[in-house]
Design a protein that fits this description.
With 225 residues, this protein is of the alpha/beta class. The chain has a single domain, classed as 3-Layer(aba) Sandwich (Rossmann fold). The chain has eight helices and seven strands, in the order H-E-H-E-H-E-E-H-E-H-H-E-H-H-E.
């Protein structure tokens, strides 16, 4: 049995991403990159009919729990993935929920992924926003936090702003939908303060990059001229 506390912030289904995408997933083939314990698969299969769900996951403990949730699972290191395993699969949607920042070379992974999808495939992506105001406060005092979750997750290898992410994907993808998730504070010590976020919405919208803790996108392959 996998340790439920190991990555507890990644255990739940990404309902926020599915709401952003606003798709009918019925009769579709979904590739979940970093599917962990299959929460996304469980949620979507309960809500939509005839889904074919394929998972990619590198955590050997999580793999033990995900078999019952997906139609096919590959235990694989995403940094060294051979995309030919998906050559015979016609993928409709790809989920990349808080995955890209964990890769060694996301600027190589994303163009390679673009080559195996078709014109209609859509990618649902979320990444933490390093432009969040706490980054500047921490750096002002000479700190760079290493936490178990969130923007300063100690397992992150790369950090993105909205501008930098768009720059990375611009040659291979077009962005068809974009959304920000706002948060008053990040981190467990003061998380209860987020219940008051609604009172700060004017401030969030006045300075959106600095109060955005997560950036969310829907992408599709850019048409070659």
């Amino acid at each position: 049995m996998v340790n439920q506390d190991k990555y507890r912030s990644y255990n739940g289904a990404r309902i926020d991403l599915f709401k952003l995408a606003n798709f009918d997933f019925s009769d579709k083939t979904i590739l979940d990159v970093g599917c962990y314990q299959g929460a996304n698969a469980r949620y979507l299969k309960d809500k939509y009919k005839n889904i074919t769900y394929i998972g990619l996951e590198g955590d050997s403990e999580a793999i033990l729990n995900v078999y019952s949730e997906v139609d096919k699972i590959y235990q694989i290191d995403l940094d060294y993935i051979d995309f030919s395993i998906l050559d015979e699969v016609d993928i409709d949607f790809i989920i990349l929920g808080d995955i890209i920042e964990h890769l060694k070379e996301p600027d190589i992974f994303m163009p390679r992924l673009a080559k195996i999808i078709n014109d209609n495939t859509q990618l649902i992506v979320s990444i933490p926003n390093i432009q969040y105001y706490e980054t500047f406060l921490q750096l002002l005092f000479g700190n760079f936090p290493r936490r178990d979750r969130g923007i300063f997750d100690k397992t992150h290898l790369h950090w993105f702003t909205n501008k930098e992410f768009r720059k990375m994907v611009k040659n291979d993808y077009e962005i068809i939908s974009f959304s920000r998730s706002f948060r008053l504070v990040d981190g467990n010590c003061c998380a209860s303060l987020n219940q008051y976020s609604k009172y700060f919405m004017p401030l969030f919208y006045l300075f959106p990059p600095f109060f955005t803790y997560q950036l969310k996108y829907v992408l599709k392959q850019k048409q070659k001229k």
